[in-house]
Amino acid sequence: MKSKTVQEIARLYTNYFQEKGHTIVPSSSLIPKGDPTLLFTTAGMVQFKPLFTGAVELPYTRAASIQKCVRTTDLEVVGKTERHCTFFEMLGNFSFGDYFKKEAIEYALDFSLNHLEIPKDKIWVTIYLDDDEAKKIWMDAGIPEERIVRLGKKDNFWGPAGDSGACGPCSELYLDRGPEKGGPNCGNNPNCKPGCDCDRYLEYWNLVFNQFNQTVSGELLPLKQTGIDTGSGLERVAMLLQEVDSVYDTDELKTIIQKIEILSGFQYNESTKQSFRVITDHSRSVFFSLGDGIYPDRTGRGYVIRRLIRRASLFARKLGIHEPFLYKLVGTLKDLYTVRYPELKDKVKDIESILKKEEELFLHTLEVGLEELESLLSHLTANKQTLVTGKEGFRLYSTYGFPREMTKELVEDRGFSFDDKGFEEELEKDRDLSRASWKGKKIQYLTGLSASNELKTEFLGYTESKSISNVLYLFVDGKSVPSAKQGEEVVIVLDKTPFYAEGGGQIGDTGYFKKDGFQFQVQDTQKENDTFLHMGMVLKGSISVGDVVEAEIHSERRQNLANHHSGTHLLNGALRRILGNHVTQKGSIVSADYLRFDFSHPKALSPEEIIQIESDVNEAVSANIPVKTEVLDLNQAKESGALSMFDEKYGNLVRVVSMGEKSKEFCGGTHVTNTKEIGFFAIVKEGSPGAGNRRIEAICGESVVSYFLQQFQTLASKIETHNLSAKEAFGDLKEFGISKEVPSPEGLQSIFLKDGKTAVASLRKLRETLESELEEKSSSLFKAKKKLEQQKFQMNPELVDGLLQKAHKFTKGKVVTEVFPSVDAKALKDLADSLKAKEPEILCLFGTTEGESSTLVFMCNKVLNDKGIHCGDMLKETLVMLDGKGGGRPDMAQGGGKKPESVAKSLEFALSLAKTKLS
C-alpha cells in the first residue's frame, strides 16, 4: 500500500465524492443543532438527521462531509490503547432517498481500490445476518464469498445517533493486516476473521443502510425514504495506509507529540506514551470545542471540556510540567487544522486565552489536592481499607476542584474503589447549604475586637487583583488564634486586600493566599465596618499572625461580577427612562452568573417593554461609554443627580459611578472600565417578589449567546418531535437574517458579531415568532398523534408478552422498564396490573412523556416488598433526575417532573436501585 498523509486522504475523499455528484457540506458545530439528546456531535450524520427522517425540505439528495466529532464514552482508556480518541474526524457520504445499497457499496470499493490503493485481496466485509441483498452486491463487485462475514445486531445494525433518529443494518469494510497482527491465539488460525477481538482485521469504513426511524421509546418505524449514511475515521484510515500500529503515530498526531517533546524535554516512548497520548488527544478536543464556543463550565458540555483540560493537566504533571501548558500547543493545532477548518484562524487568540486561564485556575489547587489524595490513600492502605467514600471524594471536588470522574479514575488506577452513590449524597447536601453559615458567624469572629483600629483593612480591589499583605488576625471556630494549619476552616484579616467584600448586592470575591509552603483558598469575603473577613480553608502548610502572604483574586470571576454589576446600573437607568421616574431600586444581587434587580412598579412588564429595556441597555453597551468613578462629598453627590438607595446609610464621602448619560449612582462595587466590556445583555425572567414590586433576572456577556442557543435548540427539537420542517413551521424569516431555518450556533455568533446592539431584540422577537407559529402548526398534529398512540397502546394484545420477554432477570425477581410517549398514568397502571397477574415476582418501572413534562409509575406485587423493594422510596430517589415530585406505597408509586429527555436515563437509574435489592 502507498502511504498517504491525513490531508491527502481528506482531499482524495472530497474530490472523489464531488465527482460522483455529492454536495460537499462543511463540518457542522460540535454543538448538535436541534438535538438535546446529544452533548456533542458524535458522527457525520448528526447534522443530516432531519434530512433522513423527511422532517425538512431536501436541499440536495446526496452529500459528503468531513465532520469533527467528540465522544467521551471511553474517556478513561484514552492514552492506554492504540486507537481510542475523544476527538476524531469522520469521512462520510450520504444519500437521502437517492441511491441505496448498490451504489454505496460500489463507491466504497472503488474508492478503496483505486484512490486509497488498498489491495483487493486484503479487503474483507461484514454484513447483517439476513442481508442477502448486500452479500450479492459485494460478490458482484468482486469480493469472494469466503471474505464476506455475517454478524449480528451488536456489530452490524447501526444507530441512531442519540435516543432517536434514522438507523438500519450496515456493512463494514475491514483491512487484513496479516497473521502477524493476530496475536498468540490467532496467528494463522483459519477461523480468525472480522468480528474477532484480535488486531489482525481492522474496520475502516461503515456503510449504514438507513431504513428505519427509531423513536425515543425504541420503536422502529419505516423511513419515508431509504438513505445511506457512511462513516470512515480519517485517523483510522491514515493509520492503516501509513502502516503504523497507533493513530498517535500518524503524521498529524505525531506532529503534536513532537511539539510536546520540545516543550516538556521528555521523549515519546513506552514509559511516557500514555501522558503524551492523553495530552495530544485532549488538546484537540479542547481546541475544537473552544473554537465552537463550548467554554469550561460546571455543567453540561462545559463540564466535559473542563474535565478534559484537568485530565490533561494531570498527565502533563507526570512529564514534570507544573505550569499552564496546553495553551502552548494551540499554535501547532492551528497550523495543522486550519487547512481543513479555516474558520478557526480568527479564534486562536481567544482559544489560547481561555485555555490558559482555565489551566491556571486548576493548577492553583492541583498540587495540594494530589498531596491530599496521596495522604488519604496512604491512610486507607495502613488501615487495610479499599473504599474512597463519597464524603472524601466530595472534599476533593469542593475544595480542590477535582471532578468526580477524575478522582474515580485516579483511585481506581491505584486499586481502590470509589463510592459514587455517597458522592451524590454529599453533593445533594451541599446544594442545600448556604453561605449564610459563614455570614452568621462573622459577628462572632469580631467579638471584643470591632473597636480596634488595627482591624481596619485597606481595600485595593478597585485597581489591583493582587497584593502583598500582612496577616493581622486569624479566627478558627470563632476564636482568635495565633496560627492555623492544613485542613482547618479559617477567617483571615489582612492589613490590605484586593478582595471585594460582599456589599451593595455584589457577592464577595474568591481566590487564594500563598507563600512558601502555604496555600489558602478564599471561599467568600465578608465585611464588618472596615474589617474584611477572608473566609476559607488552609489547603497546604500553616499560617501565623504576622506572616506576609500574596493575595490574588479569581480574576475571571471578578470580571463576570463587574459585567453584571455595571449591567445592573444600566438596567436601573433604562427602567426609569422607559417605565418612569417612579421606579426605585428595592434590592439587588450581583453574582458572576447573573444579576437580579428588584424595583417598584405596579404591574408586569409587557413583551414590548422588555424588548425596549434590553435595547436601551445594549445600546449603552455598544456605545463604548467610559465608566467614571469619583469620590464626592455626600451633598455634592446628591446635587450631581446620582441615584442612591433610599434606606441605605452613607458616610460623609461617597463613591459615584457614572456611565455617560445612561447611569449615575452611588456605588461601592467593582465595575467595568468601559461599557463595551459587558458584551451583551438579556433579560431571562420577569416576575414579582411582592405587591407593588417587580423582579428582573438578567445575564451579561457570552452567557447571552449560550442562552439564545439553548432556546433555539429546544425549538429545533420540537420541530423534529412533531415532524415539521423548519420552512413549514416558521415560514419566511428573512427579516431576522435567517433563511427559513432555525439559526445554527455559527449563525447566532455571526448575528451578535455583526450587530450586537440589535441582536438581543431581534433574537427575542424571532424566538417569540417561532414559538407562536410552532404552537399553532403543531397543536392539532400533536393531539392527533397522542390519540393514535393511546389507541395503539390500549389495543395491542402482544404488548404484555413482549415486555415479559425482554424483562431484566435477577435472582429474586424480574424488572421491566419502558418509556411510552403520550400515554396517561391510568393506562400504565392497567398495563402493570396485567404484567403482575402473569408474573407475581415482577417490578414495573414505566415512564411517559408529553411536551415538556414527564410521569413515572412504579408498581410491583407485595411479594417483592418482602425482598426489599419499596416503590415509593425508589420513585423519590429517581425523580431527582427529572426535577420532580411524587411518592406512594411500597407496591405502587406515581410522580411527575420535567426533563422528558431524561426519562429513559431515570429508569436506568431506577433499574440499578432495584438490581441491588433483587440480585
TrEMBL record:
It comes from Leptospira ellinghausenii. Its main location: cytoplasm. Binds 1 zinc ion per subunit. One of its GO terms (cellular component) is cytosol. Residues 4-710 form the Alanyl-transfer RNA synthetases family profile domain. Belongs to the class-II aminoacyl-tRNA synthetase family. It catalyses: tRNA(Ala) + L-alanine + ATP = L-alanyl-tRNA(Ala) + AMP + diphosphate. SMART domains: tRNA_SAD. It is found in: Cytoplasm. Gene3D superfamilies: 2.40.30.130, 3.10.310.40, 3.30.54.20, Bira Bifunctional Protein, Domain 2 (3.30.930.10), Threonyl-trna Synthetase, Chain A, domain 2 (3.30.980.10). GO terms for molecular function: alanine-tRNA ligase activity; aminoacyl-tRNA deacylase activity; ATP binding; tRNA binding; zinc ion binding. Zn(2+) binds at H565, H569, C667, H671. This is Alanine--tRNA ligase. Its cofactor is Zn(2+). PROSITE patterns: AA_TRNA_LIGASE_II_ALA. It holds the Pfam family tRNA_SAD. Keywords: Aminoacyl-tRNA synthetase, ATP-binding, Coiled coil, Cytoplasm, Ligase, Metal-binding, Nucleotide-binding, Protein biosynthesis, RNA-binding, tRNA-binding, Zinc. InterPro entries: aa-tRNA-synth_II/BPL/LPL, Ala-tRNA-lgiase_IIc, Ala-tRNA-ligase_IIc_anticod-bd, Ala-tRNA-synth_IIc_core, Ala-tRNA-synth_IIc_N, Ala-tRNA_ligase, Ala_tRNA_ligase_euk/bac, DHHA1_dom. Catalyzes the attachment of alanine to tRNA(Ala) in a two-step reaction: alanine is first activated by ATP to form Ala-AMP and then transferred to the acceptor end of tRNA(Ala). Also edits incorrectly charged Ser-tRNA(Ala) and Gly-tRNA(Ala) via its editing domain. SUPFAM superfamilies: Class II aaRS and biotin synthetases, Putative anticodon-binding domain of alanyl-tRNA synthetase (AlaRS), ThrRS/AlaRS common domain, Translation proteins. GO terms for biological process: alanyl-tRNA aminoacylation. Its EC number is 6.1.1.7. Residues 341-383, 760-791 form a coiled coil. Consists of three domains; the N-terminal catalytic domain, the editing domain and the C-terminal C-Ala domain. The editing domain removes incorrectly charged amino acids, while the C-Ala domain, along with tRNA(Ala), serves as a bridge to cooperatively bring together the editing and aminoacylation centers thus stimulating deacylation of misacylated tRNAs.
